[in-house]
Amino acid sequence: xxxxxxxxxxxxxxxxxxxxxxxxxxxxxxxxxxxxxxxxxxxxxxxxxxxxxxxxxxxxxxxxxxxxxxxxxxxxxxxxxxxxxxxxxxxxxxxxxxxxxxxxxxxxxxxxxxxxxxxxxxxxxxxxxxxxxxxxxxxxxxxxxxxxxxxxxxxxxxxxxxxxxxxxxxxxxxxxxxxxxxxxxxxxxxxxxxxxxxxxxxxxxxxxxxxxxxxxxxxxxxxxxxxxxxxxxxxxxxxxxxxxxxxxxxxxxxxxxxxxxxxxxxxxxxxxxxxxxxxxxxxxxxxxxxxxxxxxxxxxxxxxxxxxxxxxxxxxxxxxxxxxxxxxxxxxxxxxxxxxxxxxxxxxxxxxxxxxxxxxxxxxxxxxxxxxxxxxxxxxxxxxxxxxxxxxxxxxxxxxxxxxxxxxxxxxxxxxxxxxxxxxxxxxxxxxxxxxxxxxxxxxxxxxxxxxxxxxxxxxxxxxxxxxxxxxxxxxxxxxxxxxxxxxxxxxxxxxxxxxxxxxxxxxx
Length: 509
What we know:
Residues 1-13, 483-491 and 494-509 have low confidence and may be disordered. α10 packs antiparallel against α16 (292-327). 72% of the residues lie in helices and 0% in strands. It has helices spanning 3-9, 24-35, 37-43, 45-52, 56-78, 87-95, 97-116, 118-134, 140-156, 159-187, 200-203, 208-217, 235-265, 270-276, 281-289, 292-327, 345-364, 369-402, 409-432, 434-438, 442-469, 471-475, 503-508. By secondary structure, the chain is mostly helical. It is globular, with a radius of gyration of 23 Å.
């Protein structure tokens, strides 16, 4: 047979994600951008100051330290579990397939909720920016739909393209806050610089619980570092470094910037200023200490901050969808990777369509883009991601009890157990103060709180169905490729150890 004929009969290799594309800085850009530092500071920090007093900066440090403890066990396990499924793979390894499949469904819904709701914030922020800069009042829907197209295109392009875009946008949003900080420090604040914010009598007050709830929410998205493992250079080193870099940066930066804005008004005056105009607190500060032109830039960079967050979450969702399609849990078509860009483009198209449907549904119902689309869709997603973090923290010691390893007890038992206790407390704080996140009635809040456990329960039902009707898919769920299995990997989770259990399943596969 001729070489030409042989080439015609040989099917082309399936396109895959671009391995080795991302370094530590690239992954850090993705996860820090997802947290949207400028948006969190200008939009949420004034509420933390108003309700928690001048001790609010300490709350962000406490949240950062808690998540750093979580990251100890999280990143240790990342060296042993290579699956692209991230959260659900870790939970499956530690707590079993039913819980892992429930976690997979919760992750999919949680990340979608975190992203789709933010299109409401984009529409609202776009209106505010147009009003502040041009005195116009455009409708929010075209802004949100334009954002959907921009983010869809960004997800369609290669992952390194996305990393470059996020690097620029993140530099802009953090740069404007650094500019504010420089102005306040150079001029010595309103009445001189004070460290009263970190004094125990200002930190341990009745509003501390509220500050902590808001602070934990400000870190949402940092855990997505492991989603990019397959595209990372030297992932055993890159992923942990990016995780710690993201947590360290966010914790210190948030605390510092909240302290800076307190100094801009003064310890005695800042709470009254936050009560009078919480949305304008940061704009007033930067106008006074830097200039009106800087306030105009801040309006623009808040809009780009929201876009950066959307792109980061969009890429994370696409990779979760890709992983679940490869598992056989979602339709196989969603697992297609673009041959040129190396992106999970079909998953991206579906995610964009889903976002458009939700946005249009809220618009048709006459809903407010911020008070309802953002808050009502975002909050269940946030609770879902917190729940996944808690399950991972519990899964870490359970996993390391089952395998042979050389990791220390501090990493595999002590840190994750302490983190689990603290994360459970954080979830309790968020649920207890859910009205701060939604501004909704008790009935709506009850539904929003109940969505995460309902989705998880649906995942348990799905696991039961898969075990009964598609046993091969169930048996291979979160299995490691043979060549990546460590010497201590439990045989039940290696792909080669699984065999079809029924003739029907063999035919289907």
